[in-house]
Amino acid sequence: MTSTNGFTYLTAGDVTSVTPDNGQGGATVAINGTNLLGGGASIVSVTLANVAVSSITSSTDDSVVVEVASGGVAGAGDIVLTSSTGAIITETDGFTYVAGPIITAVAPASGQLGTVVTITGTTLLGGGSSVASVTLGSSAAASIESESNTEIVVTVADVAAAAGVDVVVTA
User: Fold this and answer.
1) Which of 7, 35, 65, 106 has its CA 20 to 30 A from that of 45?
2) Is pLDDT of 162 > 70?
3) Cα–Cα distance between 12 and 74 in angstroms, integer?
4) How far apart are CA 122 and CA 20, in angstroms?
């Protein structure tokens, strides 16, 4: 028995670029290429360096946009896209998790409006070239005076707080 034209071979998908190709949890990554849907209607799963993404924001035949999940181990790993047809596209070592920032000191430990605070640590820029924001408690710093991977200097904004507050750096 024969089924005429019962099966169609599809052109294999191909990743042509990943922007950015490194980052940490919360970052948005665009994966571009050809035939990414593998003949299907959508992408059903994406992993970056062996970690499933937090969400798939959009998927078309030439672009898949995802949000990087937290929990990746620093280092390079494969990007794996799985389409609704079961087609799998792998980009070897296509994404590198960057170690998250670690704050080791905040000085001075108290202050008021206009106080200049120095935050020291490691990977404070999160693999990027700048800091997006610094908050002291619920208030954003009035300004970011300088920034590097090991030191960020900010000026305190006007805020009323009776006790110690968290210092949060968002790269």
Assistant:
1) 7
2) no
3) 30
4) 21
